Every structure is written in structure tokens, then in C-alpha cells.
Amino acid sequence: MLELIVISTLNGVLFGMLLFLLSSGLTVIFSMMGVLNFAHASFYMLGAFFGFQLTKWIGFWPALVLAPLLVGAIGMAVERYGLRNTHKHGHVAELLLTFGLAFAIEEIVSMIWGKSPVDYRVPTLLDFPAFTVFSTNYPAYKIFMLVVSVVIFIALLVVLKRTRVGLIVQAALTHPHMVGHLGHNVGRVFMVVFGVGSALAGLAGVIAGPALVTQSDMAASLGPILFVVIVFGGLGSLPGAFVASLVIGLVQTFAVALNGSLASAFGPLDPSAGPSVLTDVWNVTIAQVAPIVPYLLLVVILIVRPMGLMGTRES
Amino acid sequence: MRKLTLAIAVIAPMLGHAASAEDTLKIGYIDPLSGGGASVGEGGLKTFQYLADELNAKGGILGHKVEIVPLDNKTNPQESLVQAQKAIDAGVHYITQGNGSSVGAALLDFVTKNNTRNPGKEVLYFNYAAVDPSLTNEKCSYWHFRWDASSDIKMEALTNYMKDTPSIKKVYLINQDYSFGQSVRTDARKMLGAKRPDIQIVGDELHPLLKVTDFSPYIAKIKASGADSVVTGNWGQDIALLLKAAADAGLKVNWYTYYAGGAGGPTAIKQTGLDHQVFQITEGFANSGNQAAMDFEKAFRAKVNLSLWYPRAVNEMRMFKAAAEKANSIDPVKVAAALEDLKFEVLDGGQGLMRKDDHQFFQPIYISSFGKLAANEPFDEENTGWGWHLVSKVDTPQAMVSTTCKMVRP
After folding, report:
1. pTM score of the predicted model
2. Do A110 and B34 touch (CB under 8 A)?
3. B216 contacts A14? CB cut-off 8 A
């Protein structure tokens, strides 16, 4: 039992950190610009495919730097030529733009790289078990993912809260005209913020690609859970997203580990009643419903605390 | 004048197309070409296209050129029906599908209803991989033919092998949460219970179909259960990621699988270092030793750049031709009648039989293990240097199971 708890905790933390890596960019964009970027998971996918392609050409480590830069550049272009124009029509137009973009990116990716998973492997330098707990190995690569997540979290916090750059960026959101009068280019600030957010998604893609599967539906399969993370943590709150990622990672991992069902809690149904819909509900285990648990959490938190764990406003 | 030329340029190819469409024998291939099942679906499509080319090179079927029409169903039963209707409207009389028994059941029902309502416009459903036993038992239909061994046939063979392996003490079942996965788990429980009552089932897991991206929590659970063997019917990314997570965590168990050979599976097994500890059960495999099959494999790999994952598709297409020639017609009603009780020499050798009672094809079944290759085994998988090695062969008579099908004949 202890073994399962320890290992599930470790797995949960590792998965949670991956979620944070993914949602950090989304949170940055939302908190700084107020844009809910539906195409975020698509930037993540682009990062993974760029990472795969560049790894083939020039190796993993250069790809780790170049791929996020490329994705960031695409993000900046999207902001400059897309979002900036739709901005004056309000948030719905922006939302629809990113929504359409997500589909476009998925189609383009599957046209270029096909729909099958590509063979994107962990770099040999990190392809060894880092440590062993209860005879279960933990790959060094996963530890690398964890470290990167934590570094990004700290770096973002410091930049946004402790530097002049962060100050200007935050001021540009609430008082764009004043910031403009002070001689800063507000348009460029937004463009850079969107670029950085996209680059973070790209970085997550390069890193998560070899650990999970790199294929053209990866955006669609991870997209929804990102929204759970940022809504649960509080829209726009970076520490909130960090905590929410950990909570969701742990909850989902532990849910898989649990075998409890209504039948095991209250005893089996009377067999003479025969099979019915109720028998299915009665016998379903927590492990079976594990994947929907985060969404249940989302519903609950929206009812109980609509601003999320650490959010400041209700939106 | 220019407009006229343009109009002719646009319309002429259409007319030409309409004329040739009469001669072409179209087979609607309804399988996932996007989403989690896409890798499997694309492999299947390439296989069928190769087989169509092979038939066309020898004059097609009764002089008709065979064409595969790819239709993406996203592994979704509802979408499959939309695609099937689309295919029928486009003049397709034969559809083939394999991935997902939930899809299979929906298509079977759809085709049966279609044929009752539209006499003279019948459609046949050739199933090459949906293996839920119910499709040839309680749900059986005259218009459905299955070339893959059903799940209970495979489990029968697999448990017969496990029965004689005394080292198996604790078994963990992990399957996809839908009709097929559930039938694997029920059959495994029933058959292991009957053949080896001393084996303990230490876990029985169902997980969502093609949705899990990280199997580490499941692997932790398997490890904690103390299992020495895992039985799974997982396919597509669900088997590849499961094995990948096992490789990462260093889980050392024996794997008894239906589909470990699918895309990504061999690479993951090589990573685990489990030499000849992962077993799969198929109707044929690259190193089966049959010369004709090995020649086919070689040519197939050279052209398609994939291992032949569906020897049953070869049997299906070749048998389709045989049945059409026997009936001397490509009319679906006549082909269906000709297929019943048709005996056929399968790709990997030995005689198979399309049983009249339930339209299930019976054929020799092989259990193979994945690992280092012997000298007479030329084929590896996914450039790993490892390949499949024959462990046990079950001949057709021993691979037959009874059916509860009460076939309604037209």
C-alpha cells in the first residue's frame, strides 16, 4: 500500500508539472492580455513537431532552444496580424479567431507530418533511469521535465512581479493609454507577451513530445484539461495554475490507483434483479472514471468558488 | 469560346469518370484516418490499397478494376454510419472496416437494415479486425463476414498456452473500456478460471479507449499488485503507450497480448529489454516460415515501408476474388452466397473456412514472442533488430468455437 502511495504521489507530481508546463503560457497570455487562447494546445503541438523535425536535423539540444523561438515567432505574427485587428471587436472575436486557428494548425500539421505518431525519442543523454523507488524506475527525462517546469515557474514569477518589464506589462493591461503616454509601445508589449506565451507552449511541446505521443491529435487530447487547470487555479493566476496542476495531477493519478466502487462500499446488488443500467453504475470503479475526475473538479469549483483557487476576479 | 473550352475542360473528365465508374469495383474503407486510431487506420488503408493494386495487376476481379475508397470515421460509430451512407450513395456495394467493435456493431446493424429496406441494392460488410464475439453470435447478420479470429477464439488459444506455463501465478488484466475490451476481460476470467483455477487474478482494469496519454499510474498499480503476467487486448496507441510506460518504469512481467505488434509496440518492447517475454496472438506473422507469406512480406515491406500487420486483409481480398469468380458475378447477393462455406488456402499456409452458420472465418492461429531473431528469421520490426518468433501454432479444427448465431437468410 505504502509503495502504491509513494509511487502514485511521484507520478502525480510528474504529471502535474507537465500540466503546468503546458498551462503556464496560457495563463500568462490570459492574465496579461485577457485573451483566452484556444489555439494554445496547437502551439504546444507545433512545438512538439518542430522539436521532432529539428532534432532530426540538428539534434535535441539546439531544437530545445530553436523550436520554442520559432513557435514564439508564429505566436507574435498571430498577435500582430490577427488578434490586434480583432481586438477592437471585443473578446468574442478574439476567441473565435484562436478557435479557428486551432483547427487550421491541426490540419496543416497532419498535412505535413501525417496522422500517425512520429518517432520522436528521448535524447540519449537523458535516456537512463534517474533513481529507483520500490523497484520502479524513474526516467531521468521525467525529472528533467520537472526541473524545467519549476525553473519556468520561478522565472515567470520573478519577471512579472519583481522587474520593470513585468511592471510595464501589467500596467499595459489595466492602463494602456497611460503606458502609451509614458512612451512605451503598448502594441509591441502585447505582441511580445503573446509571443512569450506561445513560446512557452512550444517549449512544453518539445519536452513533452518524446515523453507522450507526438501526433496530430495531441492538441485536441490535451487542450480541454488545460482549461480545467487555469479555471481551477483561478483565471490569470500563475501560482494558482501551479497549485491546480499539482492537484489535478495527483487527483487523477490517485483516482486510477483506487479500486473502490459503490458495490465494494455497500455490497453487491441483489443478483435476482438482473443486469440493468444501475448495475453498471453500481459496479463502476473510481479507476474507470479517473479521466473525468478533473472535469468534475472544474464543475465543483465553478459552483463553490467561481474565481478559482487563487483568482482575484469573477470571470 | 474560351468559356466553352473551359466548360469542356471541366465536364469532360467528369464524364470520363462516370463511364469508368461503372467498371470499377469500389470498396469503402471505413476506419479512423484521424484521431487516436489514425496510425492503425492509415496502416490498414495502405494494406488494402496494396492488395487492390495486386489484384488489378492481374486483371482485377472479373475484369473490374478494384478501388479502395478511404472514409474517415474517427473511431466513432455515429460518424461511421454517416460515412457508410455516403459510400452507398456513391455506388459502393462493399464496405470493409476493422478498428473498434463498437463501430463494427453499428455498421453491422446499419448494413442489415439497409439491405432489408433496399432490395436490389444490397451492401456487404467485410470485417477484418473487429473481434467482439457478439458480432458472430447474438448480433450475427447474413451480410457480415469476419476474417479476423474473434476475441474468444484468440483467448481460447492464448489460455491453452498459458495453461501449460506453470510459472504463471498472478495475472493482471488491463483492457479498453468498451465492448471488445470487456469481452477480453470476461473471456480471460472465465477461461483461466476453468483451465488454471490456481491462477490468481490480481487486477482487472478498464481504461478509456484511446484517451490515456500516460500509463504510469496504471503501471504503478500493476507493479503494486505483484502480478507476474499481464493479459491485454489493447490496440493502437493504447498498447504502445502501455508498453512504453512499462519500459520507463522498468516493469518486468510477461505480457500476453492481442496486438503488441502494432505501431510503436515493438519499439517499446525493445526498450523494456523483455526478450521473448511479450507474446501476441495472430493469424500470421512475418517469420511464420511459410515461403509464400515471406515473399509477400518482403515485397510488401519494400513497397509500403510497413510490416504486414493484416495477413487477414490479404485473405479477405483474395477470397473476395475467389467468391466473385465462383459466383461469376460481383453482385453482393451472389458473392455472399458464394462466400458461405468457402474453403481457402490462407496466406500463412493451411486451409481456412468461412463458416456458413455465423460467417466467421476459421484459420490457423499463431502465438509468437518478440525478441532476438534466430538465423532463419529474416524479419525484424520497426528497425529494432528484434522480431516475432513462433511459440505455438493452433490448426484450424482446434481453433473453432461454437456459435449461438441464428442466421436470418434473405
Report:
1. 0.83
2. yes
3. yes
